[in-house]
C-alpha cells in the first residue's frame, strides 16, 4: 500500500485515488451519524517514509444521519414535609436587630474602584454566563494555563527525530479529520495541546509513530469534550488502517501515563469568548465577524511550531485586537481601541500584544501561497462568512505589520 513521506514535497501529500470506498459494519453507524461536510479520504500520512507516490483526493458519499435516541427524563415524585405533633413552636419576644428590610449592597472589588473599567457581569438573568463567579473563574484559568506550558523549542533535543515540518503536515491533516467528524472546536484545540504536551516529554517517538500520536490525541480529546465521540475503529479507518485498534489503545495508555492524566488545559476559545463579550459591551462595535475572524487567526497558528509556546489567553487577546484593527479600517489610537477595560478583562496591554499581532499578519500574508490549506479552506465557506477570503486581509495594514515580522519581502 502506498505511503506518504513527511519530508516529501507537499504535492505528494495528497490522498490516494480509489474508485470505491466502503465503511465496515462497525463504523458505518457512527460515521453516518456524525460525519458530514467536506469529504476526506483516509490515508496513512506518516507511516512509510521511504516511498513517495503521487496521490489524489477522492470523495466519500455522505449518508443521512440517523436520529439519536434521547433517554427519557426521570421524574421525581414530590414529597410532603414530615410534620411532628409533639414539637412546640418557639416564638421570639422581639425581632433580632440583624433582620433588615433593605437589600444589602454587593461589595465592590478593589480593582474596580481604582481602574476606569466597566462591569460586564451585571446581567444576572442568564445562568450560562455565571456572572457571580466569572471573574474568579477566569482569574483561575490564567493561573492554570501557566502550569501547562509548551516549550518554545521542545524539539531541539539531541536524538529527537521529529521535525517541525512533520508536525505541520500532521496538524494540517488532523484539521481535515476533525472537520470530517464534525466535532466541537474545543476538541481540535485540545487535540493539538495534548499532542504537543506529550511530544515534549517523550523524545523517543519516531516518524512512524507520529501519526498514531496525533490520532490518539484526538481520540483522547474527543472523549474529554464530545458527547458522542467517534470509535477507535473510525480513527483506524481514517489512517488507512496503518495502525490497529490495539496500537491506538497502547498509545492511549502511554500518553495518559506520561501526561499523568492532566488534560484540563485552558484553551484560546475560552478566553476569546470572554474577550468578545467584554468588547461587545465596552467598545460597542464588535459583532460575529470580529469573533469569526479571531477564530480564523487562532486556527492559523495551530500548524505552526513557532506559535505552540504562546499562552492561550495571550493568543486570544492578540487575535481579537488584530481583528478589530483589520475590520474597522480606522486610524483609531491604541488607547481607544484597547482601553483600560479591555486590558483589565484580557490581561494584556496593546503594546504587549503588538509583536504577536505582527506575527499573525505574517501568517495571513503567507496563507494564500502556503501548501497547507486546511484552515483557509475551512473558513472559506458561507457558514463561516467566507472570512478567509475577505478583502480586508489584503489591506495595507496587514502588509505593513507582516513586513515588521519579516514575513513579506520588499
List the helices and strands and how they pair.
Elements: H1 25-34, H2 110-114, H3 134-145, H4 164-181, H5 185-201, H6 207-225, H7 232-238, H8 245-259, H9 268-282, H10 288-300, H11 312-328, H12 334-337, H13 340-346, H14 350-367, H15 374-378, H16 396-405
3D architecture notes:
The protein is mainly alpha-helical and 410 residues long. It has two domains: 10-58 and 152-259, Cyclin-like (Cyclin A, domain 1, Orthogonal Bundle), CATH 1.10.472.10; 268-405, Cyclin-like (Cyclin A, domain 1, Orthogonal Bundle), CATH 1.10.472. It is 47% helix and 0% strand. The longest helix is centred in the middle third of the chain and has 19 residues, at 207-225. Residues 266-393 form the Cyclin C-terminal domain. It comes from Daphnia magna. Keywords: Cell cycle, Cell division, Cyclin.
